[in-house]
Design brief:
The structure is a single chain. The longest helix has 15 residues, at about 25-40. With about 60 residues, the chain is mainly α. It has three helices and no strands. The radius of gyration is 15 Å and the shape is extended. The chain has helices spanning about 5-20, 25-40, 45-60. About 5% of the residues are buried.
Length: about 60
């Protein structure tokens, strides 16, 4: 039986544990980049981009 795991979930899980253990290295940067790259190709990309745009547009009104 083959079990497949989404690369987004895999990179997200690894990044979560790296951030929890305060491990910062070149490997952590690779994991964070991979997570962002694969997350951008999911359905979550549009809401994340909209949230970032809304936050940037709200900054001058603070």
């Amino acid at each position: 039986m083959a079990v497949t795991v989404s690369l987004v979930a895999l990179f997200g899980l690894v990044l979560f544990f790296l951030l929890r253990s305060h491990t910062l290295s070149a490997g952590s940067a690779f994991v964070a980049t991979g997570f962002g790259f694969f997350l951008a190709s999911t359905g979550a990309a549009a809401p994340i981009n909209q949230l970032a745009t809304d936050l940037i547009n709200a900054l001058p009104n603070l």
